[in-house]
Amino acid sequence: MKGYEVKDLSLAPHGRQRIDWADREMPVLRLVRERFADEKPLAGLRIAACAHVTTETANLVRTLQAGGAETVLIASNPLSTQDDVAAALVAEWGVSVYAIKGESTETYRNHVHIALDHRPQIIIDDGSDVVATLVKERRAQIGEVIGTTEETTTGIIRLKAMERTGVLTFPAIAVNNAQTKHLFDNRYGTGQSTLDGIIRATNILLAGRTVVIAGYGWCGKGVAMRARGMGANVIITEVNPIKAVEAVMDGFRVMPMIEAASCGDVFITVTGNRHVIDREHFARMKDGAVVCNSGHFDVEINLRALRELAESDPITVRPFVEEYRLRANGRRIIVLGEGRLINLAAAEGHPASVMDMSFANQALAVEYLVKHKGELSPGVHTLPAEVDTEIASLKLRSLGIEIDRLTPEQIEYLSSWEAGTA
Description:
The chain has helices at 12-24, 27-39, 55-66, 83-93, 105-117, 129-137, 153-165, 179-202, 218-229, 241-249, 257-260, 279-282, 303-309, 342-345, 352-371, 385-398, 408-414; strands at residues 46-51, 70-75, 96-98, 122-125, 147-150, 171-174, 210-214, 233-237, 253-254, 266-269, 289-293, 315-318, 321-325, 332-336, 379-381. It has 422 residues and is an alpha/beta fold.
Protein backbone atom coordinates (compact mmCIF):
# COMPACT_ATOMS: atom_id res chain seq x y z
CA MET A 1 0.00 0.00 0.00
CA LYS A 2 1.44 3.38 -1.03
CA GLY A 3 1.09 6.77 0.61
CA TYR A 4 -2.42 8.02 1.31
CA GLU A 5 -4.50 10.31 3.45
CA VAL A 6 -8.14 9.30 3.79
CA LYS A 7 -10.68 9.49 6.59
CA ASP A 8 -11.02 5.82 7.57
CA LEU A 9 -9.82 2.67 5.81
CA SER A 10 -12.52 0.62 7.54
CA LEU A 11 -15.03 2.28 5.15
CA ALA A 12 -13.43 0.43 2.23
CA PRO A 13 -15.86 -2.54 1.96
CA HIS A 14 -18.85 -0.23 1.60
CA GLY A 15 -16.94 1.92 -0.87
CA ARG A 16 -16.11 -1.17 -2.94
CA GLN A 17 -19.80 -2.09 -3.14
CA ARG A 18 -20.72 1.40 -4.33
CA ILE A 19 -17.90 1.50 -6.89
CA ASP A 20 -19.06 -1.84 -8.30
CA TRP A 21 -22.64 -0.55 -8.42
CA ALA A 22 -21.56 2.51 -10.41
CA ASP A 23 -19.53 0.30 -12.74
CA ARG A 24 -22.75 -1.41 -13.85
CA GLU A 25 -23.89 1.93 -15.25
CA MET A 26 -20.59 2.66 -17.01
CA PRO A 27 -20.38 0.21 -19.93
CA VAL A 28 -18.38 2.52 -22.22
CA LEU A 29 -15.63 3.08 -19.67
CA ARG A 30 -15.66 -0.64 -18.93
CA LEU A 31 -14.99 -1.40 -22.61
CA VAL A 32 -12.12 1.09 -22.59
CA ARG A 33 -10.76 -0.53 -19.41
CA GLU A 34 -10.85 -3.98 -20.99
CA ARG A 35 -8.89 -2.73 -24.00
CA PHE A 36 -6.43 -0.88 -21.79
CA ALA A 37 -5.86 -4.07 -19.78
CA ASP A 38 -4.90 -5.90 -22.99
CA GLU A 39 -2.85 -3.19 -24.69
CA LYS A 40 -1.29 -1.32 -21.70
CA PRO A 41 -1.09 2.01 -23.58
CA LEU A 42 -0.18 3.87 -20.37
CA ALA A 43 2.53 1.49 -19.14
CA GLY A 44 4.93 3.21 -16.76
CA LEU A 45 3.12 6.55 -16.98
CA ARG A 46 2.89 8.77 -13.89
CA ILE A 47 -0.49 10.51 -13.62
CA ALA A 48 -1.68 13.07 -11.09
CA ALA A 49 -5.48 13.22 -11.08
CA CYS A 50 -7.35 16.03 -9.34
CA ALA A 51 -11.04 15.13 -9.41
CA HIS A 52 -14.14 14.72 -7.29
CA VAL A 53 -13.47 11.48 -5.44
CA THR A 54 -16.69 9.65 -6.27
CA THR A 55 -17.66 6.15 -7.34
CA GLU A 56 -17.47 7.22 -10.99
CA THR A 57 -13.99 8.70 -10.58
CA ALA A 58 -12.91 5.46 -8.92
CA ASN A 59 -13.79 3.59 -12.10
CA LEU A 60 -11.78 6.08 -14.16
CA VAL A 61 -8.77 5.51 -11.90
CA ARG A 62 -9.25 1.74 -12.25
CA THR A 63 -9.18 2.22 -16.03
CA LEU A 64 -5.95 4.22 -15.90
CA GLN A 65 -4.46 1.57 -13.62
CA ALA A 66 -5.52 -1.19 -16.04
CA GLY A 67 -3.68 0.72 -18.78
CA GLY A 68 -0.47 0.53 -16.77
CA ALA A 69 -0.40 4.01 -15.22
CA GLU A 70 0.68 4.83 -11.69
CA THR A 71 -1.91 7.32 -10.48
CA VAL A 72 -2.10 9.64 -7.50
CA LEU A 73 -5.62 10.95 -6.85
CA ILE A 74 -6.49 14.09 -4.90
CA ALA A 75 -9.84 15.80 -4.34
CA SER A 76 -10.69 18.77 -6.55
CA ASN A 77 -13.07 20.24 -3.99
CA PRO A 78 -12.99 20.07 -0.17
CA LEU A 79 -16.61 18.89 0.08
CA SER A 80 -16.89 16.52 -2.87
CA THR A 81 -15.02 13.47 -1.53
CA GLN A 82 -16.90 10.27 -0.76
CA ASP A 83 -14.81 8.92 2.11
CA ASP A 84 -15.76 5.28 1.60
CA VAL A 85 -14.69 5.49 -2.05
CA ALA A 86 -11.35 7.05 -1.13
CA ALA A 87 -10.77 4.23 1.38
CA ALA A 88 -11.69 1.53 -1.14
CA LEU A 89 -9.29 2.85 -3.76
CA VAL A 90 -6.48 2.66 -1.22
CA ALA A 91 -7.37 -0.69 0.36
CA GLU A 92 -8.73 -2.58 -2.64
CA TRP A 93 -6.66 -1.22 -5.53
CA GLY A 94 -3.55 0.21 -3.88
CA VAL A 95 -4.07 3.71 -5.26
CA SER A 96 -2.43 6.69 -3.53
CA VAL A 97 -5.41 8.85 -2.55
CA TYR A 98 -5.25 12.14 -0.66
CA ALA A 99 -8.83 13.24 -0.05
CA ILE A 100 -11.06 13.74 2.99
CA LYS A 101 -14.57 15.18 2.85
CA GLY A 102 -14.52 18.54 4.59
CA GLU A 103 -10.75 19.00 4.38
CA SER A 104 -9.49 22.53 4.98
CA THR A 105 -8.27 24.76 2.20
CA GLU A 106 -4.76 24.40 3.62
CA THR A 107 -5.01 20.59 3.46
CA TYR A 108 -6.38 20.78 -0.06
CA ARG A 109 -3.47 22.91 -1.21
CA ASN A 110 -1.02 20.58 0.50
CA HIS A 111 -2.57 17.69 -1.43
CA VAL A 112 -2.01 19.58 -4.68
CA HIS A 113 1.70 19.71 -3.86
CA ILE A 114 1.70 16.01 -2.94
CA ALA A 115 0.25 15.29 -6.38
CA LEU A 116 3.05 17.29 -7.98
CA ASP A 117 5.60 15.48 -5.82
CA HIS A 118 4.56 12.41 -7.85
CA ARG A 119 6.40 14.07 -10.79
CA PRO A 120 3.43 13.55 -13.13
CA GLN A 121 3.84 13.21 -16.85
CA ILE A 122 0.09 13.62 -17.33
CA ILE A 123 -2.21 15.79 -15.22
CA ILE A 124 -5.96 15.15 -15.11
CA ASP A 125 -7.39 18.36 -13.71
CA ASP A 126 -10.79 19.59 -12.56
CA GLY A 127 -10.58 23.35 -12.30
CA SER A 128 -6.88 23.58 -13.28
CA ASP A 129 -5.57 24.07 -9.75
CA VAL A 130 -2.81 21.51 -10.25
CA VAL A 131 -1.68 23.04 -13.53
CA ALA A 132 -1.85 26.57 -12.09
CA THR A 133 0.24 25.50 -9.08
CA LEU A 134 2.73 23.80 -11.39
CA VAL A 135 3.09 26.94 -13.51
CA LYS A 136 3.32 29.32 -10.56
CA GLU A 137 5.32 27.34 -8.01
CA ARG A 138 6.90 24.24 -9.57
CA ARG A 139 8.25 25.47 -12.89
CA ALA A 140 11.26 23.15 -12.77
CA GLN A 141 8.87 20.22 -13.34
CA ILE A 142 7.13 21.60 -16.41
CA GLY A 143 9.53 19.89 -18.81
CA GLU A 144 8.43 16.47 -17.48
CA VAL A 145 4.77 17.05 -18.40
CA ILE A 146 3.46 15.50 -21.62
CA GLY A 147 0.14 17.27 -21.26
CA THR A 148 -3.01 17.80 -19.22
CA THR A 149 -6.70 17.09 -19.60
CA GLU A 150 -9.36 19.39 -18.16
CA GLU A 151 -12.85 18.37 -17.05
CA THR A 152 -14.56 21.71 -16.42
CA THR A 153 -15.58 24.92 -18.13
CA THR A 154 -13.92 26.86 -15.31
CA GLY A 155 -10.65 25.02 -15.82
CA ILE A 156 -10.67 25.62 -19.57
CA ILE A 157 -11.20 29.34 -18.99
CA ARG A 158 -8.08 29.30 -16.80
CA LEU A 159 -6.08 27.26 -19.33
CA LYS A 160 -6.98 29.66 -22.15
CA ALA A 161 -5.88 32.57 -19.96
CA MET A 162 -2.56 30.76 -19.39
CA GLU A 163 -2.29 30.19 -23.14
CA ARG A 164 -2.88 33.89 -23.89
CA THR A 165 -0.18 34.95 -21.43
CA GLY A 166 2.30 32.40 -22.77
CA VAL A 167 2.74 30.32 -19.59
CA LEU A 168 1.01 27.18 -20.88
CA THR A 169 3.97 25.47 -22.52
CA PHE A 170 2.48 22.00 -23.02
CA PRO A 171 -0.71 20.71 -24.68
CA ALA A 172 -4.02 20.61 -22.84
CA ILE A 173 -7.04 18.60 -23.99
CA ALA A 174 -10.30 20.41 -23.25
CA VAL A 175 -12.28 17.29 -22.33
CA ASN A 176 -15.20 19.46 -21.22
CA ASN A 177 -15.61 20.68 -24.82
CA ALA A 178 -16.14 17.20 -26.23
CA GLN A 179 -19.75 16.86 -27.33
CA THR A 180 -20.16 13.59 -25.43
CA LYS A 181 -19.13 15.49 -22.32
CA HIS A 182 -20.72 18.93 -22.20
CA LEU A 183 -23.92 18.11 -24.06
CA PHE A 184 -24.70 15.28 -21.63
CA ASP A 185 -22.69 15.64 -18.42
CA ASN A 186 -23.23 19.38 -18.09
CA ARG A 187 -26.87 19.34 -19.13
CA TYR A 188 -28.34 16.09 -17.81
CA GLY A 189 -25.82 15.38 -15.07
CA THR A 190 -25.71 18.86 -13.55
CA GLY A 191 -29.43 19.30 -14.09
CA GLN A 192 -30.39 16.25 -12.07
CA SER A 193 -27.64 16.24 -9.46
CA THR A 194 -28.02 19.93 -8.56
CA LEU A 195 -31.69 19.51 -7.70
CA ASP A 196 -30.84 16.25 -5.95
CA GLY A 197 -28.39 18.11 -3.71
CA ILE A 198 -30.86 20.90 -2.93
CA ILE A 199 -33.65 18.47 -2.06
CA ARG A 200 -31.42 16.22 0.05
CA ALA A 201 -30.10 19.21 1.98
CA THR A 202 -33.42 20.98 2.56
CA ASN A 203 -36.29 18.56 1.81
CA ILE A 204 -38.19 21.49 0.27
CA LEU A 205 -40.86 21.15 -2.41
CA LEU A 206 -39.82 22.87 -5.64
CA ALA A 207 -43.29 22.85 -7.21
CA GLY A 208 -44.74 26.36 -7.12
CA ARG A 209 -41.51 27.98 -5.99
CA THR A 210 -39.60 30.56 -8.01
CA VAL A 211 -36.14 29.27 -8.87
CA VAL A 212 -33.57 31.77 -10.13
CA ILE A 213 -30.75 30.26 -12.19
CA ALA A 214 -27.69 32.40 -12.87
CA GLY A 215 -26.21 31.35 -16.20
CA TYR A 216 -27.75 29.64 -19.22
CA GLY A 217 -24.85 27.60 -20.49
CA TRP A 218 -25.25 23.84 -20.73
CA CYS A 219 -25.29 23.48 -16.94
CA GLY A 220 -27.86 26.24 -16.56
CA LYS A 221 -30.01 24.74 -19.31
CA GLY A 222 -29.99 21.40 -17.55
CA VAL A 223 -30.90 22.84 -14.17
CA ALA A 224 -33.66 24.98 -15.70
CA MET A 225 -35.10 22.00 -17.57
CA ARG A 226 -35.25 19.85 -14.44
CA ALA A 227 -36.56 22.63 -12.19
CA ARG A 228 -39.40 23.35 -14.62
CA GLY A 229 -40.12 19.64 -14.80
CA MET A 230 -40.63 19.62 -11.03
CA GLY A 231 -43.13 22.46 -11.24
CA ALA A 232 -40.91 25.42 -10.41
CA ASN A 233 -41.34 28.87 -11.92
CA VAL A 234 -37.91 29.50 -13.46
CA ILE A 235 -36.13 32.83 -13.94
CA ILE A 236 -32.83 33.04 -15.82
CA THR A 237 -30.18 35.73 -15.35
CA GLU A 238 -27.51 36.16 -18.02
CA VAL A 239 -24.81 38.50 -19.34
CA ASN A 240 -24.67 36.93 -22.80
CA PRO A 241 -27.38 38.33 -25.14
CA ILE A 242 -27.48 35.19 -27.30
CA LYS A 243 -27.95 32.88 -24.33
CA ALA A 244 -30.53 35.25 -22.88
CA VAL A 245 -32.54 35.15 -26.11
CA GLU A 246 -32.30 31.37 -26.13
CA ALA A 247 -33.66 31.24 -22.58
CA VAL A 248 -36.57 33.44 -23.60
CA MET A 249 -37.29 31.22 -26.62
CA ASP A 250 -37.16 28.19 -24.32
CA GLY A 251 -40.01 29.74 -22.35
CA PHE A 252 -38.20 31.15 -19.31
CA ARG A 253 -38.40 34.61 -17.78
CA VAL A 254 -35.14 36.55 -18.15
CA MET A 255 -34.13 39.55 -16.04
CA PRO A 256 -31.11 41.04 -14.24
CA MET A 257 -30.17 39.50 -10.90
CA ILE A 258 -30.98 42.75 -9.10
CA GLU A 259 -34.63 42.29 -10.17
CA ALA A 260 -34.71 38.54 -9.66
CA ALA A 261 -33.34 38.92 -6.14
CA SER A 262 -36.69 40.08 -4.76
CA CYS A 263 -38.65 37.38 -6.66
CA GLY A 264 -36.71 34.20 -6.01
CA ASP A 265 -37.25 31.49 -3.44
CA VAL A 266 -34.24 29.41 -4.53
CA PHE A 267 -31.10 30.77 -6.23
CA ILE A 268 -28.64 28.54 -8.14
CA THR A 269 -25.41 29.84 -9.67
CA VAL A 270 -23.81 28.02 -12.62
CA THR A 271 -21.72 30.70 -14.33
CA GLY A 272 -18.06 29.97 -13.59
CA ASN A 273 -17.65 33.63 -12.54
CA ARG A 274 -17.27 35.37 -9.20
CA HIS A 275 -19.79 37.29 -7.04
CA VAL A 276 -22.74 36.60 -9.31
CA ILE A 277 -24.86 36.90 -6.16
CA ASP A 278 -23.49 39.91 -4.29
CA ARG A 279 -24.16 42.30 -1.43
CA GLU A 280 -26.96 44.27 -3.14
CA HIS A 281 -28.77 41.05 -4.06
CA PHE A 282 -28.80 39.68 -0.50
CA ALA A 283 -30.31 42.96 0.70
CA ARG A 284 -33.33 42.46 -1.60
CA MET A 285 -34.01 38.76 -0.96
CA LYS A 286 -37.11 37.39 0.72
CA ASP A 287 -37.02 35.98 4.22
CA GLY A 288 -35.94 32.34 3.92
CA ALA A 289 -34.43 32.60 0.44
CA VAL A 290 -32.22 29.59 -0.35
CA VAL A 291 -28.91 30.24 -2.09
CA CYS A 292 -26.58 27.63 -3.55
CA ASN A 293 -23.90 27.11 -6.18
CA SER A 294 -23.28 24.42 -8.79
CA GLY A 295 -20.32 26.12 -10.48
CA HIS A 296 -16.86 24.71 -9.85
CA PHE A 297 -15.35 27.19 -7.37
CA ASP A 298 -16.97 28.68 -4.26
CA VAL A 299 -16.67 32.26 -5.53
CA GLU A 300 -19.99 32.68 -7.32
CA ILE A 301 -21.76 33.67 -4.09
CA ASN A 302 -20.11 36.52 -2.17
CA LEU A 303 -20.22 34.91 1.24
CA ARG A 304 -17.85 37.47 2.73
CA ALA A 305 -20.37 40.19 1.95
CA LEU A 306 -23.18 38.08 3.41
CA ARG A 307 -21.21 37.58 6.64
CA GLU A 308 -20.72 41.35 6.86
CA LEU A 309 -24.46 41.91 6.39
CA ALA A 310 -25.41 39.29 8.99
CA GLU A 311 -25.98 40.13 12.61
CA SER A 312 -23.93 37.11 13.79
CA ASP A 313 -22.28 33.91 12.64
CA PRO A 314 -24.55 31.56 10.69
CA ILE A 315 -26.49 28.82 12.43
CA THR A 316 -26.26 25.27 11.04
CA VAL A 317 -29.89 24.14 10.89
CA ARG A 318 -29.31 20.91 8.94
CA PRO A 319 -26.24 19.24 7.44
CA PHE A 320 -24.91 21.54 4.69
CA VAL A 321 -27.58 24.16 5.53
CA GLU A 322 -26.52 27.44 7.18
CA GLU A 323 -28.87 30.27 8.13
CA TYR A 324 -27.70 33.90 8.10
CA ARG A 325 -29.91 36.59 9.67
CA LEU A 326 -29.50 40.04 8.13
CA ARG A 327 -28.78 42.85 10.57
CA ALA A 328 -30.76 45.46 8.58
CA ASN A 329 -34.14 43.72 8.32
CA GLY A 330 -34.01 40.44 10.24
CA ARG A 331 -34.56 38.37 7.09
CA ARG A 332 -32.96 34.95 6.92
CA ILE A 333 -30.77 33.84 4.01
CA ILE A 334 -30.15 30.10 3.74
CA VAL A 335 -26.81 29.03 2.19
CA LEU A 336 -26.29 25.42 1.12
CA GLY A 337 -22.99 23.55 1.08
CA GLU A 338 -20.91 26.58 2.12
CA GLY A 339 -21.38 27.92 -1.41
CA ARG A 340 -19.48 24.96 -2.86
CA LEU A 341 -20.81 22.47 -5.41
CA ILE A 342 -24.17 21.56 -3.93
CA ASN A 343 -24.57 18.45 -6.09
CA LEU A 344 -21.44 16.96 -4.51
CA ALA A 345 -21.54 18.59 -1.08
CA ALA A 346 -25.01 17.31 -0.21
CA ALA A 347 -25.54 14.58 -2.82
CA GLU A 348 -23.48 12.12 -4.88
CA GLY A 349 -22.78 14.15 -7.99
CA HIS A 350 -23.76 13.11 -11.49
CA PRO A 351 -25.35 9.73 -12.21
CA ALA A 352 -22.84 7.09 -13.28
CA SER A 353 -24.45 6.60 -16.70
CA VAL A 354 -23.63 10.22 -17.58
CA MET A 355 -20.10 10.13 -16.18
CA ASP A 356 -19.57 6.99 -18.24
CA MET A 357 -19.11 9.15 -21.33
CA SER A 358 -17.24 11.95 -19.55
CA PHE A 359 -14.65 9.61 -18.10
CA ALA A 360 -14.33 7.61 -21.30
CA ASN A 361 -13.35 10.98 -22.76
CA GLN A 362 -10.78 11.45 -20.00
CA ALA A 363 -9.24 8.00 -20.47
CA LEU A 364 -9.04 8.35 -24.24
CA ALA A 365 -7.70 11.91 -23.96
CA VAL A 366 -4.83 10.62 -21.81
CA GLU A 367 -4.14 7.89 -24.38
CA TYR A 368 -4.23 10.50 -27.17
CA LEU A 369 -1.68 12.71 -25.39
CA VAL A 370 0.64 9.74 -24.92
CA LYS A 371 0.31 8.55 -28.53
CA HIS A 372 0.98 12.05 -29.86
CA LYS A 373 3.74 13.00 -27.42
CA GLY A 374 5.87 15.72 -28.97
CA GLU A 375 3.47 16.29 -31.88
CA LEU A 376 0.91 18.59 -30.27
CA SER A 377 1.68 22.28 -29.91
CA PRO A 378 1.41 23.99 -26.52
CA GLY A 379 -2.07 25.31 -25.80
CA VAL A 380 -5.65 24.13 -25.55
CA HIS A 381 -6.81 21.42 -27.96
CA THR A 382 -10.18 19.78 -28.60
CA LEU A 383 -10.42 16.00 -28.41
CA PRO A 384 -10.59 14.72 -32.02
CA ALA A 385 -14.10 14.33 -33.40
CA GLU A 386 -13.51 10.66 -34.22
CA VAL A 387 -12.91 9.93 -30.51
CA ASP A 388 -16.10 11.78 -29.60
CA THR A 389 -18.02 9.78 -32.20
CA GLU A 390 -16.52 6.50 -31.00
CA ILE A 391 -17.71 7.19 -27.45
CA ALA A 392 -21.23 8.02 -28.64
CA SER A 393 -21.32 4.85 -30.76
CA LEU A 394 -20.22 2.71 -27.82
CA LYS A 395 -22.88 4.32 -25.65
CA LEU A 396 -25.60 3.55 -28.19
CA ARG A 397 -24.37 -0.05 -28.48
CA SER A 398 -24.48 -0.44 -24.70
CA LEU A 399 -28.11 0.77 -24.76
CA GLY A 400 -29.03 -1.67 -27.51
CA ILE A 401 -29.84 1.15 -29.92
CA GLU A 402 -29.01 1.07 -33.63
CA ILE A 403 -29.01 4.04 -35.99
CA ASP A 404 -28.95 4.48 -39.76
CA ARG A 405 -25.74 4.64 -41.78
CA LEU A 406 -25.11 6.80 -44.83
CA THR A 407 -25.32 4.97 -48.13
CA PRO A 408 -22.49 5.40 -50.67
CA GLU A 409 -24.85 7.54 -52.72
CA GLN A 410 -25.54 9.80 -49.72
CA ILE A 411 -21.84 10.11 -48.90
CA GLU A 412 -21.14 11.11 -52.50
CA TYR A 413 -23.99 13.66 -52.43
CA LEU A 414 -22.72 15.27 -49.22
CA SER A 415 -19.21 15.61 -50.63
CA SER A 416 -20.31 17.15 -53.93
CA TRP A 417 -21.33 20.67 -54.88
CA GLU A 418 -22.70 19.84 -58.32
CA ALA A 419 -26.02 18.24 -57.39
CA GLY A 420 -28.90 20.57 -56.69
CA THR A 421 -32.65 20.54 -57.36
CA ALA A 422 -33.56 17.24 -59.00
